[in-house]
Amino acid sequence: MDSAAPHDDDDDREEAQGLRKIIHIDMDAFFASVEQRDNPDLRGKPVAVGGSRQRGVVAAASYEARTFGVRSAMPSVTAARLCPQLIFCPPRFEVYRTVSRQIRAIFAQFTPLIEPLSLDEAYLDVTQDLQGIGSATRMAEMIRARIRADTGLTASAGVSYNKFLAKLASDQNKPDGLCVIRPGDGAPFVAGLPVRRFHGVGPRSAEKMAALGIQTGADLRARDLAFLRDHFGSQADYLYRAVRGIDLRPVRANRRRKSLGGERTFDRDISSGPGLRAALAGIIELVWGDIAKAGVQGRTVTLKLRLADFTLRTHARSLDRVVAGPDEFAQIARGLLDALLPLPQPARLMGLTLSGLEMPGAGSASAASAPPPAGQMELF
What we know:
- The chain has 14 helices and 12 strands.
- The strands form 3 sheets. Strands 5-6-1-7-8 form a 5-stranded mixed sheet.
- Among the domains are: 65 residues, MutS, DNA mismatch repair protein, domain I; 97 residues, 2-Layer Sandwich (Dna Ligase, domain 1).
- 39% of the residues are buried.
- Helix 5 runs antiparallel to helix 6, helix 11 crosses helix 12 and helix 13 runs antiparallel to helix 14.
- The chain is α+β, with helices and mostly antiparallel strands.
- Belongs to the DNA polymerase type-Y family.
- It is found in: Cytoplasm.
């Protein structure tokens, strides 16, 4: 890997902001690992949390299950077909939240600047080096060791000078791994990655890029900003900066998510009730997988349909309690769609959202992320 990154105006802006020291911690197969920890009979075996052989959605899969192609948000029947010996475990979210609070307490010993993304991952800004350790890499090693000692679980860590790179790094050597991307190495590191590894580039975007001859970060960097804006709209500026290893977002402590959802633009407009119900089933699986991973609960389910003429139809239902689980979530979503049928014209997009979110036990010390004072923490 080259030691010097290409230099341009955006690099100058990043340097002017001051380099931060960011750690991204991602627990390894968190839900499934907790189940294997608590039940020795499951260790070394393919385990799926959530669903059953007949119905439901996989919320998490052990690494033994992943070797068969089992993934989170996958229909359980598909997972069972891929791995006939797969063991399904009912989720125990209160246990996962308790362990997550243990892990968050470890983070807080190193920094108050903690931005949780879900129960099993978070960004930490350790620029201020509260314990005088002197190295963000050493801090990441210490955090991983403490997690293993206190919880019996493993975590992977990425260390870099911004959030985008730290998250890429944490996925580089999973499971139970550590990867460091130092200043100057960001752009060369990103250049060698497939674009599907970029946070925010989903399967559909990756397919679109492949059709344009873009497979790697290097391919993406070869396209100018005007090209990216023509083909990727509002995502273009993010892609332009990311492929250059640039991300100026601070770690935001106490960031509260108000809603969680997903949407899908259809390859062809759908007009029939059966076709829309089939599309909704896929979106329910994807969104509930994200809800389970985030460890949140919510009271309001909203269905969105964008019609062929770009008019918007929405319908929502709120409960006086949190949605009980994936079955009730799916039942409410199907009821919302039925209430909107028949449509006056075909739909080109469908979205589903859970809002009124709660996350028991979530929270971290509040503080604002700021660029480092000159000369602080010389060792990365």
